[in-house]
Amino acid sequence: MADGEYDVVIVGGGAGGGSVAYGLARAGARVLLLEAGPRFEPARDFRLDLPTWELQRFPNKTGSRGTYSYAPLQMLDPQHEQLRSYNTITGRMVNGDQRRAHGYHHVRGVGGSTLHFAGEAHRLNPRAMRLRSEHGVGADWPLAYAELEPWYTQAEQVIGVAGPAQTAQGSRREPCPLPAHELSYASSKLADGAASLGWGWEPNALAILSRPHDGRPICNYCLQCARGCPRGDKGSADVTFVRAAEATGRCTIQTGVQVTQLIAGENDRVSGLVYHDGQREQRLAAPVIVLCAGSVETPRLLLASDNLANESGQVGRNFLETLGWTSVGLHPEALGSHRGLPSDSICWDFNAPDAIPGVVGGMRLSPAVGEADFAGAFNYATRVVGGWGLRHKQAMRAQFGHALGAGAIGECLPDPGSYVDLDPDTTDDNGLPVARIHSHLDDMAIRRIAFMAARCRELLGASGVETLFEEYGSYDLFSSTHVFGTCRMGADPEQSVVNADCRSHRWRNLYIVDGSVFPSSGGGESPSLTIEALGLRTAGKILEG
Ligand SMILES: Cc1cc2nc3c(=O)[nH]c(=O)nc-3n(C[C@H](O)[C@H](O)[C@H](O)COP(=O)(O)OP(=O)(O)OC[C@H]3O[C@@H](n4cnc5c(N)ncnc54)[C@H](O)[C@@H]3O)c2cc1C
Ligand code: SF4
Q1: In three state form, how does the secondary structure of 203-222 look?
Q2: pLDDT reading at 104 higher than 90
């Protein structure tokens, strides 16, 4: 990698990095993408054909997990017993009276955390972008939904999003590029339950192909998106934006390269960066740098670069985690719920910021058996059926495929106790302090989780489930599939890190495009499509200069 060879250097190859690389390379820029993790080859690395498929953790390739730490999490209150996570066979998931984290969900590698994702491809509810001005909480987005809309459309076309012509959010002007997937039989039970409660229930918009698209095949409905899609039909960033960027011949990708520092230059410009290639430290000058390392690693890198771009003091602050709840029970019918798509349908009725009585910030509901991993014999044997011998075998036969689950994800608002900083005691292999995650849920967040739990239980009851066997949520288990906010965008340089164009308020050649720039999380919308729309838009802004 020689100085001057590239117009733009991108740090991180996930949803943000992949989409910026595509937008730039397609328009003629010479792009270098530095990715800390490895490259995955779907058919070779995602081995769902092995007998041990269900026992494999994901990701399991060398170098595909980063290191991080947690500050002690908050104490739990006995008045919220009904929000404790449990399984009827294995008992409480969190013993004791302190909230616990079971890991920061992320993937290091080309494609980033989209390699793990369930493929939901959502647009934000425009109303969720104005929380401060309309509801006096959180922060507003400095750009309107209308400014993002053309980029959403473009991102959906690159990916091949399959979904309905319109959503109950009402924010689409044209249909999704591919037709929606048919609901699985299990999901149709949830649709019936929702209808009996007077709630809407519609096909979900998914980055999962319902028709062949751009050389990728259609889905086979194996329900295994969280273990990586071996067919490449799931629209993770590696097989969509990154592949298309490389096809231009102008995007070079270096894997196993961790950027450890940005170097401040003169005239409010960043002069370059320091990286570690697994063997030694190197320096590279860069005309433009785009940070796309994700909501935990991007603030870590800036804080470790002598607080670069932290004139506002907001780098690492406003960490927004995933507020989630999942309930699962057994349905009397054999639903075949061990196959299908993890999240083929959705209810948006409670998604608007004022849809939940008594709190600000909405939520959405969707099927949960896939994300809860009730797709194979091992999970049924250990989490649903239990016991030993003949009775165990008989129960396995009787109950396999009967699980029905409902999951909710809700708005997470900024809290002074939720932030990312540098761990003073722990460094990674390259000597960089690891990111330390602090998390605190206030009363409103707990009330929102309680509402989500009540709706999941109500929906399952209305769908024919009589008893629940497992429930878990972020009241006692910290969750981080969707994380945001730590370098938020805003109009006010004193309250935000980047402007509406994702450019640092001070450093003129430094941009950030990943989940960290979201001022608000949305009421349960999945974030990747918004990150990718921002990526395409930012590529245009960089080219404008
Ligand atoms: C289980 C699971 C399910 C999910 N389901 C959905 C879903 O259905 N729909 C949806 O929209 N979203 C979903 N998400 C969330 C989605 O995956 C993330 O929001 C998205 O990937 C974030 O994009 P990003 O660009 O911010 O970061 P990432 O995609 O995480 O990419 C960051 C990249 O930067 C690299 N990096 C970090 N530090 C450095 C460094 N110092 N030097 C070089 N490279 C670095 C990392 O290795 C990584 O590849 C899910 C996530 C998980 C974990
Ligand atoms: S359900 Fe479809 S998208 Fe998901 S892993 Fe299986 S084939 Fe891939």
Answers
A1: ECCECECCCCECCECCCCCE
A2: no
Tell me which residue has tokens 């320091």.
Answer: 274
34-55 average pLDDT score: 94
Domain boundaries, the chain: 8-43+66-544
- Rg, Å, the chain Cα set: 22
Distances 385 to 329, 377, 464, 504 between C-alpha atoms, Å: 12, 10, 19, 54
Two tokens at 428?
A: 């990674």
Question: Separation of 114 CA from ligand 1 center, angstroms?
Answer: 6
Q: What is the pLDDT of residue 1?
A: 65
Q: Where do runs of H (alpha helix) occur along 101-198?
A: 131-135, 145-159, 185-197
Ligand nearest to the CA of 42: 2
Q: Which ligand is nearest to the CA of 375?
A: 2
- CB atoms closer than 10 angstroms to residue 388: 8
Render pLDDT for 293-307 as a digit per residue (tens, 0 to 9). 999 999 999 999 999
Shortest-distance atom of ligand 2 to CA 223: 1
Q: Tell which phi-psi region holds residue 522, choosing left (phi > 0), alpha (psi between -120 and 50) or beta.
A: left
Among the listed residues 417, 534, 419, the one whose alpha carbon sits nearest the alpha carbon of residue 483: 419
Tell me the CA–centroid distance for residue 106 and ligand 1, in Å: 6
The CATH superfamily of 8-43+66-544 is: FAD/NAD(P)-binding domain (3.50.50.60)
| 135, 292, 399, 417, 507 from 493: Cα distances, Å | 22, 20, 57, 22, 12
| Cβ–Cβ under 8 Å, residues 109 and 39 | yes
In this prediction, residue 2 has a pLDDT band, given cuts at 50, 70 and 90, of low
Q: Is the pLDDT reported for residue 488 higher than 90?
A: yes
Q: Where are the alpha helices (DSSP H) in 316-356?
A: none
